[in-house]
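[job 0417] fold request received: NADH dehydrogenase, FAD-containing subunit
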Amino acid sequence: MAHRIVVVGAGYSGLRAARRLARSLPEASVTVVNPRAQFVERVRLHQVAAGYRPREYALPDLLRADGAEFVVGTAQTLDPRGRLLGVDTLAEPLPYDTLVYALGSVAQAGPAGAAEHAVTVADPGQARLLRDRVDSLARERGTVAVVGGGLTGIETAAELAESHPELRVRLLSAGEPGSTLSDRGRRHVLATLHRLGVEVCPEAKVVAVYPEGVELAGGARVEAGLTVWASGFGVPDLAQRAGIAVADGGRVAVDSSLRSLSHSDVYAVGDSAAAHGPGGRPMRLSCATALPLGRYAADVIAARLHGRSPRELRFRYLIQCVSLGRRDGLIQFVAGDDSPHEKVVTGSGAAAIKERVVRYAARSATGR
Ligand SMILES: Cc1cc2nc3c(=O)[nH]c(=O)nc-3n(C[C@H](O)[C@H](O)[C@H](O)COP(=O)(O)OP(=O)(O)OC[C@H]3O[C@@H](n4cnc5c(N)ncnc54)[C@H](O)[C@@H]3O)c2cc1C
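[job 0417] inference complete; emitting structure tokens
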């Protein structure tokens, strides 16, 4: 019987891995499971919230072209002893010999009231909901509070302020926004947010969310007709529930070949892998990580099935790309371990570079 490889999750890392596996192992069967039949360019979801219509990529067609099968469905259970993946749309669990775990990440849970009253930009359904609510709020000249001073919060606040100038946009950050950037990078981000009319509130730790705004540590209230929760990412708990060894808040603990530390027939890639990069630092949740990891896991699996030792992962970060609306941005140069240099590119040149990088990422995943 052909070796059965199941890839669960068809984002940047899973799709990259699946297509490469199908091409390099024509003798194996490769099946991909994903809740939607479309590939989602997740790095554009803040743009979707601002009204952008993303390009459609049909997963069944993409995968068929490389010789892989596609199942639309959500994996709900995983039995690593029996090597069975339970999928909500299948009557019988899906058996595998090798599993590639590529579930990505989800919005980090917020404080009291966040689940009921805040929206996120972490998945396409939420991004579309945010788009609809922002449109009606803008007509009333209302206020939106974006919670989270990391890159996702910054990109979202800038995008909403530029696309809806009649909206009042507040960015609430527990510390200084953009704290992972260099001083020059951070100065440019703050100047651009100011130019776009975003009210930046540093040292504003949100402890509760209400329909009409948020409460800060210390008791002050900030009014907002809509709250966007963008304060970081967690991961789905499928692996943890299945008894697979996890680290870093539920990410699959892997060795340097991305193989699970507890189950040798499971590999993890992308945001849901607790992988370590140069200098032993946890890898950034990003396409810059997800795509090379997807490709590398495919090569490791193919090498082992062919009886060869896999090559080592050679990996260095080069830049971080931040969009600040459609006409401005920041390219932050970084050392191989992702720590920032002072060198940056800003303005429309940076926006153009970021757009090229985003297109390249989609092309690397989809092949289109
Ligand atoms: C608004 C926003 C902006 C971002 N901007 C950038 C940026 O500028 N640069 C950058 O590098 N990164 C950016 N990121 C982060 C980047 O999107 C992620 O790091 C990247 O998508 C990770 O790829 P992945 O393959 O691990 O996961 P994903 O691309 O999230 O794919 C995971 C897939 O698994 C599927 N899945 C989940 N659960 C199940 C299940 N139970 N069963 C089956 N399938 C499942 C999901 O539906 C999805 O299709 C941004 C993220 C967001 C939300």
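[job 0417] notes: Residues 8-14, 33-35, 40, 42-43, 45-46, 74-75, 102-104, 121-122, 152, 155, 236, 238, 270-271, 285-288, 290, 321 surround flavin-adenine dinucleotide (CB under 6 Å). The first strand starts at residue 4 and ends at 8.
[job 0417] exit 0
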